[in-house]
Write a sequence for this structure.
């Protein structure tokens, strides 16, 4: 299990113990985190799991692959240097203690 903190746009903070190997999108939708829609079910075919990762996650995550970069070009909220798709981020020990902030809208 990997402890990840999600911060919703309204300021609600939730720490989840995410099973290793789960995507952060899976964890958010399974636990009712408001702000992650995941309309494509995690197949990197939409941008409704857009999130902003903190410095820890920026250092530990592999860079986005071309498909994720294509989808990030279509996000509804502001795209930032730390924008990622939660469906492409897999929980694991290296990410423990990371924080994901959700944008104000996904559509």
């Amino acid at each position: 299990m990997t402890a990840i903190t999600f911060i919703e746009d309204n300021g609600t903070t939730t720490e989840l113990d995410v099973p290793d190997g789960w995507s952060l999108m899976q964890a958010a939708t399974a636990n009712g985190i408001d702000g992650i829609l995941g309309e494509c079910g995690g197949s990197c075919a939409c941008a409704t799991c857009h999130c902003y990762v903190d410095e820890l996650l920026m250092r530990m995550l592999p860079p986005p692959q071309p498909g994720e970069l294509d989808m990030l070009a279509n996000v509804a909220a502001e795209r930032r240097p730390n924008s990622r798709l939660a469906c492409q981020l897999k929980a694991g020990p290296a990410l423990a203690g990371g924080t994901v902030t959700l944008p104000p809208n996904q559509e």
Summary: The helical segments are 24-30, 55-60, 66-72. The longest helix spans residues 24-30. The domain at 2-101 is CATH 3.10.20.30 (Ubiquitin-like (UB roll)).
